[in-house]
């Protein structure tokens, strides 16, 4: 409800410093890169990659923040999402091969929806069978979720073989849009749009709905949420399903980005995802968003300017962020 | 005090926390429509009693009956939905949520009732002033006000409030006493308050129970305890003199 004070009070002060990090890093990189067109290409590629990382990591940060569960099994849902798309893509080949953006988008959305449904259902089973017995037991969580990840990877190898599987981009997503000397890959623009839509949806849900309020409150103090009359275990299950489905969505986007799938693709990206979650602040969706963009653009600039440092750039970035803010960019109150 | 059946009854309640046997047969009756004070020294088991009633710790023996139902093994959310509101010792406010969001969450049945909110603003004006601020930036007293406001944002049958005056300045305690008087006047509800501050307790309590070593060692009318200095001395010891 609205009261007179609601209109009279100034809005809450926002902590803008972390938001400024990405543009500051980008501006700092401009003179080092030298060429404007190269800088734009690197920056947009980094933002697109960052959006995909965000989609994958946002589910993990919610699960980590709300449930205090360190879920290494998250990587399995990335792989499963991508492989689900690969399995179902041939049945949509008419839409995928059509030289029509609209038909290609329909195919992509259908694959995303199916992959999210599959990973959501598997996520529910994973939470009930694997996670539930080890709540509040961090060491066991690490062991059983890594075990789950390994089992999922081996099942994929048993079904699809250890070889690389090609996942070709829909026709209209291939190629680049060229503006003077600047070339922007079409699929990266789509990744940016999908990432922004997911981010906006998550912010809206967390800020404007009762479920969102419950999730934010549960991240801080689950016991008090229960004392107010809400079943936090049901909320846990719902968030885990959503987190797994988001990993599945990320897997589809990541698979199309690479146009190739490997059984270990989920495990490979998990290190990056954990770095993002730590940088952002455990449980913080806003922090995860900025952390994803930051990690991706820094990796791109470093890969271009000093390829030998590229591997360590994210570790260095995480160290610097944690020296500045020891609990991440946007720490959640309880942690 | 009401002659009706008690709203809440604990019979021989035992609670273990890990290897520790905290409640060792608590018998307690909370009369309807009255404010009952649960007193006792630190470690007597008062907070554990409230947490056991709320199902945050489960009784290993004995029973908890609320409004005719045996709630001993119920889950905490079901106990809350049966009509019990709980204000924990640490206040349990959600620091990252605004004052408004904290209250919205507590109003389970839907939008906050405007008249009820005005009544709460009358009790705790600071909450109106800081309506859109994150609760984490409130002072200790304001956080306590918010935690109580959250409990009373909708009518409940029973309020469990754990040490509402803990760490508060005398002026804030006086404000809290006034708010509790108003709460008693304005709603037909039952309140069980854990308290260390006897001045606060005797100014508000209709009934009193005193705990020691995980048991209730005295129960009766507050007026009887206030009038009997020997009983006060025996039950509450020297700390009482400081509080008077």
Describe the structure.
The complex is a heterodimer of chains A (335) and B (244). Chain A is mostly helical and 335 residues long. Chain A has a domain at 36-263. In chain A, 74% of the residues lie in helices and 4% in strands. Chain A contains 14 helices and 4 strands. Chain A has helices spanning 4-8, 17-33, 36-67, 74-88, 93-97, 101-131, 138-160, 186-208, 210-220, 222-227, 232-258, 265-280, 285-305, 310-324, and strands at 165-166, 176-179, 182-185, 260-261. In chain A, strands 1-4 form a two-stranded antiparallel ribbon. In chain A, strand 2 (176-179) and strand 3 form a beta hairpin. In chain A, helix 2 (17-33) packs antiparallel against helix 3. With 244 residues, chain B is of the alpha/beta class. Helices cover 38% and strands 25% of the residues of chain B. Chain B is built from 11 helices and 10 strands. A 6-stranded mixed sheet of chain B has the order 6-7-8-3-9-10, sandwiched between helices. A 4-stranded antiparallel sheet of chain B has the order 2-1-4-5, with helices on one face. In chain B, helix 3 (99-106) runs parallel beside helix 6. Chain B is globular and about 45 Å long.
